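Replying to the earlier thread about multi-chain prediction with a worked example.

Input:
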Amino acid sequence: ADPSPLQDFCVADLDSSLFINGFPCKNPDNVSSQDFFANGFQQSPGEFNIFDVNVTRQDVHRFPGLNTLGLSMNRVVLKPGGLNAPHVHPRAAELALVMDGKLFVGFVTTGNVFYWKIVTSGELFVIPPGLVHFQLNIGHENARFFASFNSQNPGIQFAPLALFNSTPSIPDLVLSKAFQVNQSIIELIKSRFATVS
Ligand code: GLV
Ligand code: MN
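Result:
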């Protein structure tokens, strides 16, 4: 859901000290074929997070040719039992293609209706913009999917980390009231994320 481009392309100058909506364009004289290709998905996934998931992002920060084009893509690899924890993309819808494995995929609407399906290789799923969603690997092998976004910078905000691992921390009083439990339970949950940065 990014604004439309006003020119053929505007390869991001990631080092510019101008702060605008998006990135300033690299001088077209210095643009080369290389700017329109990215090989991040050729590398095997590096570290898996505490949820046993690796997300390789190809957004404008890693692929400057995407600047102003309103598109980007992620590769998500989940170990068996791995959960791409409930999260939102504040600036994009997500359209994903499952490559390997068996995933329990769902999202929740603003009216708190839960839509879900178990999907396997070759299936697509779509997540409307800004809604809370997750993917859980319910198979015995690694699962892998590619997700495309209608933003060069969709953003990703994980609900558990936003609430229980922010800097500085949200006061226990707030979370205790929000979740209707006593503060010791909030402290316990926060402690689980102590090593996450
Ligand atoms: C999956 O939902 C992703 O956002 O990469
Ligand atoms: Mn997502």
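Residues 87, 89, 94, 127, 133, 147 surround manganese (II) ion (ligand 2) (CB under 6 Å).

Feel free to reuse this layout for your own posts.
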